[in-house]
């Protein structure tokens, strides 16, 4: 049933880079990309000190004209005022963040991707009421990587993220420090976070959301809170840490120069560094997923331009087989590029760089970035079957669980320290679902339909994508696909802790495509 789109050379093998004929709609790339800084949105805050964040309305000038009212996590650090700060922590640190909810509705801070206990996980099981406070205090046990935090109140996650309640958390460890030294790329200069979202923005610059919406897709792209940004780059290698924090839009990211796709080196995924760099042309980046890539602008000349683009793909199997995904009703998304259509995200402009200041044209050896065990032999691990489906009434389910029916009651329990294979089957729905597991990073064992890259190559051995070669907390399951995950439920805790498994298409999540499971002694 499922057809891979792209049309750009299914049969090209590993030949020359394909031509990209489809042009994305014209966006204006006039605002410089916001970089991590001292104040305001994306301000950098080290979690060495306890931090207090107020969830509140924040009025910011994002677009020309009237200011935009966001819901944001704001704080004061010394003399600095920060909003949705980019947090830094080191593996092994114990961090403390207090949430003071000044919104008119309950919210939380969920620490997406971190392996922590139930109470600090920040899921909707522990909402913070309007006017109330709570402290999150936990040890960062995860590998170095780009994680993120966001609101997670049951049924309201879609609207709260669309309005702005999300930020990045960068974890560092020894391997990462070594790599950074060897790459010689300064954080904030040639090593940059790209927090990508789309928003539905009205004429008055207000962010629009419709309660009960399905697949909320935006008419504006924001990267690091900058609409359709540009970035000046020198002819050299860059490292980008991309995070898709959109509600529903899956991206297929590539760097495009003229008709050519620039090759990337994938060096990390949700849960940190890969064992070795892996060459890729394009990567599917679903909501909640992160990737760490290196890309070389070294062969380009000042004045040339590169586009960070989401390439077209078939996002939904329509009855009329047109292949395009038409959000229903499209009237909810005025001016939006449909999901799956090509969309330009950011323009990179090559600028001059004095020869003597040019960084080395070659990368260091990247064949041993990190220690990652080979895939475990799961022959005698118990298998848990999970089926993604929609009923006749249009409600989403995982097996027979819809969160609104089953609620906080765990659908099942898992013994702490046990290891299981979770087999997620998307046989009954017409669109891909990014499935996210709280509390544990997993390995992808196999997938039955592995998307080839734009050259039609199978990217990695065994049907896996390059992304599947690392640790992940969110995995895309394509229509018709069965994805098998290996999950080790070891954790340094006792007692019962409840976690979520859900679709990170936030409208699906809010409609109940989520279950609670318990980890017990
Ligand atoms: Cu990023 Cu349960 O979420
Ligand atoms: Cu979904």
Question: Which short descriptors sum up this protein?
Answer:
single chain; 521 residues; mainly beta; Immunoglobulin-like; 3 domains; 7-stranded mixed β-sheet; 35 strands; globular; disordered N terminus; binds CU-O-CU linkage; binds copper (II) ion; EC 1.16.3.4; membrane; Multicopper oxidase CueO; transmembrane helix; oxidoreductase activity
Task: Note down, in words, how this protein is organized.
Monomer. Keywords: Membrane, Metal-binding, Oxidoreductase, Transmembrane, Transmembrane helix. There is one protein chain. With about 525 residues, the protein is mainly β. It folds into three domains: about 35-170, Cupredoxins -  blue copper proteins (Immunoglobulin-like, Sandwich); about 180-355, Immunoglobulin-like, CATH 2.60.40; about 385-520, Immunoglobulin-like, CATH 2.60.40. It is about 5% helix and about 40% strand. The chain contains five helices and 35 strands. The protein has helices at about 120, 155-160, 175-185, 405, 505-510; strands spanning about 30, 40, 45, 50-60, 70-75, 80-85, 85-90, 95-100, 110, 135-140, 145-150, 165-170, 190-200, 220-225, 225, 230-235, 235-245, 250-255, 260, 265-270, 270-280, 285, 290-295, 305-310, 345-350, 385-390, 395-400, 410-415, 420-425, 435, 445, 475, 480-490, 495-505, 515-520. The strands form six sheets. Strands 1, 16, 18, 19, 22, 24 and 25 form a seven-stranded mixed sheet that branches. Strands 15-14-13-17-23-20-21 form a seven-stranded mixed sheet, with no helix packed on it. A hairpin with a 7-residue loop joins strand 4 (about 50-60) and strand 5 (about 70-75). The longest helix is centred in the middle third of the chain and has 10 residues, at about 175-185. The chain starts with about 30 loop residues before the first strand and ends with a strand. Mean pLDDT is about 90; it is low at about 1-25. The structure holds CU-O-CU linkage (C2O) and copper (II) ion. Copper (II) ion (CU) binds next to loops. Copper (II) ion binds near residues 433, 503 and 513.
